[in-house]
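quick one before i forget lol
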Amino acid sequence: MAELDRAGPVRAEDAFDVGAVHRWLAAREAGLAGLALPEVGQFPGGASNLTYLLRYPARELVLRRPPIGHKAATAHDMGREFRVQRRLKAWYRYVPTVLALCEDEAVIGSPFYVMERIEGTILRGSSDVAMAPEVARAVGLRAIDCLVALHRVDVDAAGLRDLGRGAGYVRRQVAGWCARYGAARTANVPSFSTVMAWLDRSQPPDVATCLIHNDFRLDNLVLDSEFRVVGVLDWEMATLGDPLMDVGGALAYWIEADDDAVLRRFKRQPSDVAGMPTRAELASYYCSQTGLVVDDWVFYEVFGLFRLAVIMQQIYYRYHHGQTTNGAFKDFWFLVTYLEERCRRVAGLGAAGAAGTTGAAGAAGLGLAQGEAF
């Protein structure tokens, strides 16, 4: 069966003052004053911003806050994430309803916001998903339909024009993610210098500027009982940018049934079940729905993989320096190394050499658990 998005116990390092949140929220949201403190759980997969369930007797709310420890300078902006969703709600029906934003760090030690919970099913990597092949295919295509609809949002009408910096998005992304990797690099991961140089010299011009999600994955979608999309979550990195970069980022997470053992071992969504479209099919479908013509997806694929490696390295940096004790992150250095090799292969850059080589045996030796969150 597919996994319901169940909240588990709150990790000790991620705990907060529930009473302080309740008092703050009750002063702003009708119907909460006078109630007992909510039951609190933590949703799985919180490698970036942390997400919690606040369960009141007749209402379930969700709280989002940043992680503890080292963060990229522009990451984890709760106010920005809140305002994007509030403005977008009228123009994109899949956005959660946000309720209140707290930017006073005195309440729980960080900014946070609260939103209504969207109930449904979230397809996570470790799920044994009971879907007929034709249903699985429909799920993959519906995800792309949601992405196409987002890219068609009128950003001026939605009041979101201030999210972007105009032309040059691809160039800024290459430079920015290269800098982030340098800032988060630890001694046990490769330099990515060859890959970064290739990205710099291979980047295409922007094809358009539109609203992009920037972290579009199956496990950020909420599905109803008929596997139709009813919600899109995790708007932390939404911005104005090139739509093909959004597609490339999404496809970096799309692991297929015939991918190698290492890649399949750290999948976070069941994109490899029978019937799911391939990455090539999804890219083709996106183009057919938008009218865009892409002669070569290699740059977008390599950039998506590189960006994924940087995200994982930023998370590993926090673990490496003791800023989080979440054991799910301890082997991320290995996955970053693997992604460097994969970038090289896709770009045709050749092998990194024996010292940096990984493989299925290495994954097994490290004891990596299938479906570990990142």
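fyi Confidence is low (pLDDT under 50) at residues 354-374.
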